[in-house]
Structure to design on (359 residues):
C-alpha cells in the first residue's frame, strides 16, 4: 500500500509539472497571445501632411519580462515613401500595469512622403529576444499593424514644382573677397549654405552655377551634415564654387528663389539669394566714368549751392561798406591821394618849363 501511494504521488507531481509546463509560454508568439508581449506603431503628426514633410513613426514593444538581446527592425519598402532609421538605439522605460512591472522599448523611424496621395505602411517585422519563466530566453519576430495616412498639396503650393517642408529653413551666400577690383586671371569663391530642421541633408536643394562665357565656374562636391541634439534634427548642405575670370566684361550671377512650406504655421515663405553684378577690366573703368556722371540729385544740390553763394555775395556787397575795415580802406585811399598831390610842382607848367613831373 505504501508503494502504491508513493507511485501515485510521483504521478501526481509529474502531472502537475506537465500542466505547469504547458501553461508556460515557450515562443514569442505564445507570449504575444498570452498578452505578455506587445508591439504597436503610430505616426506623428497624422493630419495636414504635405509631400516632403517629416513624419515620425514610433514602434513600441512592451513585455512583463525583460529583453535579453538586441532588437532588429526590418524596414519595409513603400513606393512614394522614404523610410529611414536615423536613431540606432531605442528609448527604454518601465511602467506599472495593475501592479506588474512592464519593460518598454520605443524605436523611431523617419518617414518622408515624396508625393501627394494615400499611403499604407505594411506590418513592420521586429525581431526580439525575451526572457521567459523557463531557464532559456525565447527569440522570434513580432509584426505591427498596418499604418494608413495621406498627404495633400495645399492650394498655395499648387503651382510650385519644388519646395522645402520643414519647421525651419534658411539659405545664405558669401564671397571670400571683394568683387569691385577684379581683373582677368583673378579668382574668387562663392559659398552657399542651406540649413533646415526635420529633414535629411540629402533632401536640401542643390545649387548649380550658371554657365557664363568669360567666367569659369568650378563647383566643389557639396558638404552634407546631419545632427541630432536632444531630439532636434538639423541638416546642412554647403556648396562652394570657385570662379576664375577669363576675360574682361560685365557678368551677372542671377538671383535664386527657394520656396519654404513652414510646417508650424502652415504658411508658404519665399527665401531669396540676391543677384550679384561683377565688372572686370575696362568695363570697370567705364562703370567708374558712368558713376562720375551728374545725377538729377547732384544737379539739385549744385543749384542750391549756387543760390547760397549768390546770397552771400549780395550780403557782402550790402554790409561790407559799413564795416570798420571799409572805413579804414577809405582813409588809406585819401592818404594816398594826398601824397600824390605833394608830388605836384608848386608853380604852373608855364612858369617852370623844366619840370618833368605830371600834373
Amino acid at each position: 500500500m505504501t508503494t502504491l501511494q508513493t507511485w501515485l504521488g510521483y504521478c501526481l507531481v509529474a502531472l502537475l509539472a506537465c500542466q505547469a509546463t504547458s501553461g508556460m509560454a515557450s515562443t514569442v508568439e505564445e507570449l504575444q497571445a498570452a498578452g505578455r508581449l506587445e508591439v504597436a506603431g503610430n505616426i506623428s503628426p497624422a493630419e495636414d501632411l504635405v509631400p516632403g514633410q517629416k513624419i515620425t513613426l514610433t514602434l513600441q514593444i512592451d513585455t512583463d519580462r525583460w529583453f535579453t538581446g538586441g532588437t532588429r527592425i526590418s524596414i519595409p519598402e513603400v513606393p512614394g515613401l522614404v523610410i529611414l532609421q536615423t536613431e540606432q538605439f531605442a528609448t527604454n522605460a518601465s511602467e506599472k500595469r495593475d501592479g506588474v512591472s512592464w519593460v518598454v522599448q520605443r524605436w523611431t523611424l523617419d518617414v518622408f512622403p515624396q508625393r501627394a496621395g494615400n499611403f499604407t505602411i505594411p506590418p513592420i517585422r521586429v525581431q526580439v529576444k525575451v526572457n521567459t519563466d523557463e531557464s532559456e530566453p525565447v527569440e522570434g519576430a513580432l509584426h505591427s499593424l498596418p499604418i494608413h495616412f495621406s498627404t495633400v498639396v495645399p492650394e498655395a503650393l499648387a503651382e510650385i514644382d519644388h519646395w522645402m517642408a520643414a519647421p525651419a529653413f534658411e539659405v545664405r551666400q558669401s564671397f571670400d573677397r571683394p568683387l569691385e577690383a577684379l581683373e582677368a586671371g583673378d579668382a574668387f569663391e562663392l559659398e552657399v549654405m542651406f540649413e533646415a530642421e526635420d529633414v535629411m541633408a540629402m533632401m536640401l536643394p542643390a545649387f548649380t552655377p550658371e554657365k557664363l562665357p568669360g567666367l569659369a565656374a568650378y563647383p566643389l562636391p557639396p558638404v552634407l551634415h546631419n545632427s541630432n541634439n536632444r531630439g532636434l534634427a538639423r541638416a546642412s548642405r554647403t556648396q562652394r564654387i570657385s570662379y576664375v575670370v577669363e576675360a574682361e566684361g560685365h557678368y551677372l550671377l542671377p538671383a535664386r528663389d527657394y520656396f519654404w512650406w513652414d510646417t508650424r504655421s502652415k504658411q508658404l515663405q519665399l527665401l531669396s539669394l540676391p543677384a550679384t553684378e561683377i565688372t572686370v577690366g575696362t568695363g570697370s573703368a567705364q562703370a567708374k566714368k558712368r558713376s562720375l556722371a551728374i545725377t538729377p540729385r547732384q544737379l539739385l544740390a549744385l543749384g542750391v549751392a549756387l543760390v547760397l553763394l549768390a546770397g552771400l555775395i549780395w550780403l557782402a556787397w550790402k554790409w561790407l561798406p559799413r564795416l570798420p575795415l571799409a572805413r579804414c580802406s577809405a582813409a588809406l585811399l585819401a592818404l594816398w591821394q594826398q601824397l600824390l598831390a605833394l608830388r605836384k610842382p608848386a608853380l604852373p607848367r608855364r612858369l617852370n618849363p623844366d619840370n618833368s613831373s605830371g600834373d
Remarks:
- The helical segments are 2-23, 28-33, 282-292, 296-319, 324-342.
